Amino acid sequence: MLRLVQDLRLSSNSNSNELSAKVAEIYRECFAELASSSCPLSQNKCNSNSNGQHSTLLQCFDAKPSNQTESIAPSPDDVWIFGYGSLVWKADFPYIDRRRGFVCGYKRRFYQHSIDHRGIPEKPGRVVTLLPGDLTQDRVYGVAYRIAAAQKAQVLDHLDYREKNGYERCNLEFHEYPSTTMPIEVIMYVATQSNDSYAGHVWQVPCIARQIFTSAGPSGPNREYLFNLFIAMQELFPDVVDEHLTELVDCVQQYIKNEEPALLEQALKAQINCILSEFLAKDASEQKQEELAQRLEALLERCQRPSWREELLSQEVQEQTF
User: Fold this and answer.
1) Considering the domain boundaries, does residue 139 fall inside one?
2) Which Gene Ontology molecular function entries are recorded, alphabetically (predicted)?
3) I need a surface site. Which of 52, 56, 146, 302 has the fewest CB within 10 A?
4) With bands split at pLDDT 50, 70 and 90, how would you rate the model's confidence at 58?
5) Catalytic-residue membership of 163
6) What does the pLDDT read at residue 61?
7) In which domain, by residue range, is 106 found?
8) For residue 66, what is the domain's CATH number?
9) pLDDT digits over 69-99, tens only?
10) How far apart are CA 303 and CA 315, in angstroms?
11) How many distinct structural domains can be found in the chain?
12) 207 domain residue, yes or no
């Protein structure tokens, strides 16, 4: 980076065209590949292969129903937890069995703001909750986990904290898929419409998708949550179509394909321009060149973080709005 800076040959007398040319050069040499390297959803991960074999996720699911290192026998005091969002692929608690299946009478929707996992209070993301629907027509597919009686209190305390942003417990019947066994009573967490983070359908799918496209939080990019759920549903329930989920994935992918490269280029060039402009306002000594190189290196390091795209996209979209 220092060699590139030393070759800039800029001075305080450089005009805007010269500055723009140097900004473009730095972007092309150091940042262009990063901005164009987004590959959010691999299609070959979403479908069964041409031989019709089960997906890797389904093979793992069937082969390892428990995540316990030692066998724990089931008991009547065990409880079942139903997950329909991130719990489908990220069960961060001990369980002794798990089943694919569905609950009746609900619809899954990205109507809940996330300010603690896939967004922050200043820029919330979107995650799923369930809305009441038609008991005979509507189903929500997901995974039920059996929690051993001895671990029940620990797991429920953990989930109460994990789902603290507006979610409440409720009990209902879970039906295993694809078998027709007797229903299982499960506990699930639902964000009610009265909680402070409920977003609802005020924004239609394109607006929700744009929020997901530009949001990230402590648990990672919001798009990662959306894509992971979509992939899990395709692999665990290959003959089930979730129209709301599919429409959101398609819309976010279009934003990524059609808008993300240009938005990232604009945002990164603006950052580089700001750094160079500050440099030109000072004496261009060797020490100042080293400081400039360090500033550019810091920007490059920032672009290695998991949620760097969303940070820049959010800023750029907001600036374009105003």
Assistant:
1) yes
2) glutathione specific gamma-glutamylcyclotransferase activity
3) 52
4) confident
5) yes
6) 86
7) 57-199
8) 3.10.490.10
9) 899 999 999 999 999 999 999 899 999 999 9
10) 14
11) 1
12) no
